[in-house]
Amino acid sequence: MLSIRDLHARIGERKILKGLNLEVGAGEVHAIMGPNGSGKSTLASVLAGREGFEVTAGRVEYLGQDLLAMEPEERARAGVFLAFQYPVEIPGVNNAYLLKAALNAVRKPRGLPELDAFEFLALVREKMKLMQMDEAFLSRGVNEGFSGGEKKRNEILQMLVLEPHLALLDETDSGLDIDALKVVARGVNTLRSGERAIVLVTHYQRLLDYIVPDRVHVLARGRILRSGDRQLALELEKRGYDWVTGAAA
Amino acid sequence: MLTTPTDLDALVAQKYRHGFVTDIESDTLPPGLDEDVIRLVSRMKGEPGFMLDWRLKAFRHWLTMREPDWAHLRIAPIDYQAISYYSAPKKKDGPKSLEEVDPKLLATYEKLGVPLHERARLAGVAVDAVFDSVSVATTFKDRLARAGVIFCPFSDAVRDHPELVERYLGSVVPHTDNYFAALNSAVFTDGSFVFVPKGVRCPMELSTYFRINAANTGQFERTLIVAEEGSQVSYLEGCTAPMRDENQLHAAVVELVALADAQIKYSTVQNWYPGDENGIGGIYNFVTKRGECRGANSRISWTQVETGSAITWKYPSCILTGENSVGEFYSVALANHYQQADTGTKMIHIGRNTRSTIVSKGISAGHGQNTYRGLVKILPSAAGARNYTQCDSLLMGDRCGAHTFPYMEIKNPTAVVEHEATTSKIADDQLFYCRSRGISEEDAVNMIVNGFCKVVFKELPMEFAVEAQNLLAVSLEGAVG
Predict the structure, then answer these.
(1) Which residues does B462 contact at the CB level (< 8 Å), separation at least 6?
(2) CATH number, domain with residue A183
(3) Residue A53 is assigned to a structural domain of this protein
(4) What number of C-beta contacts closer than 8 Å exist between A and B?
């Protein structure tokens, strides 16, 4: 589904990704771990199309398409979803309104009809229940005055509603207490399916206790230095990132 | 909030969609202004003597005045002798009904989205259509008359209700008030007149649609709304003009009078031609709007959405004379390309326990300059007066400007005055967030701007709130990217 070949990217003069390779197949859950500043969030940003990141070399193929040539909204409509590490507040824009516009934007290219307000509300209410969110969230401004945990839940709610083919979660676990973490993990797990790929960017092994990955990769110094299965994450927890970064040096 | 993407594409593809000229034969006075011109205008309109005297008094005063220069505006010199002060579509006798109105005029308003045929109109809205210097049609007159409401062109009011006009005209904005108000008092040609008698709640929204068509003319309309004790009325004005390379002058005066327990809600969606993206052409919109809450417990509410005009100079104000009276001002002002807006309000608290609310949202894009200028004045007599002011500015790009000049004169120690102001930029983060959810950049900008303006839009009557959002979408075309 997602094939990243020799990806190089920089912000300004600073080179962050230096020849990254990654293959993610449909139905798989991959975890990308690594120390601070290793390029994990850059990878998520580049895949979603955020401005300010310059790709200097490499290719990213997504469902046979050249992902890097697509505008951010085209990527979203093609089924790519990024759950943000720091979701931004948009005052005055109704949370439900944004979500409905987003849903109809991704339904169109799938050949699905627009949902009317009633159908939309029924769908969102069901997903909100799963995320243990109060309905009052719908009528608030997008992330306006949300706590850190509420913002993260809201991201996962959006993901459940939009049903992407490829979900990228950028440190969704950071700042969550254990109860919130379980709720978020349950949300993500309901989305696991044979047609969908999930890439978790995370700092800690803890999240992987609840969302069990098929593959674990260690990203450091702009490249994937080691890949393995779930055991790799446990090993990392025990031995620290130096174990990998030092070994590869 | 948003229309479908295809609608929006169509919207942004058109730059200024009201820029056409109607090819219609007009009686237009040659440019120039002196007492003879004023006498001629007054005679053509068959006005009573008091009107002519008032006009001449205003003109003589105007000659002693100078253009104001305190606003944060750059204005090219205006040659008042190069303007024609009267232009009207040719007609044999005045149309008695819509059937007699020139079909070209009907087609013009149809094209502007303001069909004048009553059956085609939104059922709840009566319209007065002003074309250049004269009113060409007023709808639903009979139905309103049955409720006792007078809604007619100003010229008709001078003829049919001279005692009301004489009593209230100039009672809120005197002919000496300011340079443009004095000029308007001397040369105004038409506008709307509304009178809602005691205890009557006006059965429908009233609306005036102003259209400048002829070249080298100014539009000087006068609107007077009187709400007697315990009455209520909601009034909306809309404005458009053709695209021309010359600047055209629009100097209107609006006066509102609310007697005890009366409520007037006045909404404006102003979309005069703003000039092109290089700042050529556009309307100079120099307008004096003021309402007086003359009676106890009365309320006047101004809501304005200002997207058009090359220059806007406008401060819809409230004089809160009656005890417990309430003044409100809700404003969205947009300055894109080379537009300049210097707008705000004055709240003059005279009566005890008077309250006022000011919410101003300024949006600057391109090279636009947007200024909020507001005065809150609390006189010694206004014990217990309260004001709340909030002015927020949104900047798009780095070549535009936002300025805030709040003035406060508090002469009573029991007054409570609050002021909040913010300035923000549309953040790339917000745009990216929306786009990463599949929403196009244009839709995202509109969504964010509309969110910013939400508290003002919700004061507008429903249909016009939608129109206002669409207008912002068109007016912001090319503001990002």
Answers:
(1) none
(2) 3.40.50.300
(3) no
(4) 83
Residue A8 lies in a domain: no
How far apart CA B271 and CA B307 sit, in angstroms, is: 5
Average pLDDT for residues B11-22, to the nearest whole number? 56
Gap between the Cα atoms of B184 and B162, Å rounded = 19
Find the range with the poorest average confidence among B35-49, B235-249, B329-343, B429-443: B235-249
- Domain membership of residue A96 as a residue range: 29-47+71-248
Nearest-by-Cβ selection for B451 from A75, A101, A141 = A141
pLDDT, mean of residues B437-466: 85
Alpha carbon B300 to chain centroid, angstroms = 15
Residue B199 has pLDDT above 50, yes or no: yes
Q: Closest-CA residue in chain B for A72? A: B436
What is the total count of domains within chain A? 1
Structure tokens at B227: 């709400």
Contact list, A50 vs chain B (CB under 8 Å): 432, 436
Assign residue B168 a region (left: φ > 0; alpha: ψ between -120 and 50; beta: otherwise): alpha
Chain B segment 5-34 residues within 8 A of A by beta carbon are: 5
**Contact indicator for B290, B319 with CB cutoff of 8 Å:** yes
Report yes or no: A181 at the B interface, CB cutoff 8 Å: no
CB spacing of B436 vs A76 below 8 angstroms: yes
Shortest alpha-carbon distance between residue B441 and chain A (Å): 8
* Digit-coded pLDDT (tens) for B280-332: 778 888 999 999 999 999 999 999 988 888 888 899 999 999 999 999 999 99
The ipTM, to two decimals, is 0.95
**Mean pLDDT confidence for B447-470:** 81
